[in-house]
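Hi P.,

Sorry for the delay on this. The queue was packed all week, but I finally got your sequence through. Input first:
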Amino acid sequence: MDFTKISWDASGSEIEAESFRRIDAEYTGRKDFSPEEWTVARRLIHTTGDFSITENLVFRNNPISKCLDALKKGVLLYCDSNMIKAGISLPKLKKLNPDYTADKLTCRIADQDIMKIAAERKISRALASVEAMGDALNGSIILCGNAPLALAACIRNSVEKGIVPSMIIGVPVGFVNVVESKELLMETSIPHVTIKGRRGGSPLAVAILHGILESAGIKL
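Then the structure:
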């Protein structure tokens, strides 16, 4: 075994900087990203180790600027999984708005009342969670990386009830309702970031939000 191949004395920040340098040097994909969009795209490449993640990456209706504007106002961040909630950097949010607290990061998927509603109505907890939030999601930022029904329900609420988020990060993963929910999102005028197809996941939703913060000069 050749342990000399490993950079043992590199710090975390040095490793990340070198990773980004290599991404910038090796990337030969799409050239249509704005500098801010590339910051998000590069964060996704870094998270997945896969350049192809950018092929189906979609930014519509000025999602980066709209997200930053909403964060500066201290809006609620609704997460469809506790993994997303746990992954978001609260200290970085505080750099945009010092009033951010953990209470502003909401996920109800494991709440007892949500589990009861879902069982009684025979619906998913993701759907029950969105319905229970109601008007509280108006003006919020939605982060969906797990449950396509959460994304679809937010879109339906915007159309049928006028509960319109400020911005949506819609990257659910899987095989059922995933492509369809993303297609619904792309039909809306809501500012959003999504990844066409089945690919997604909670880590990618977090990476997109962190990439947006990074585009504003907030170091991660």
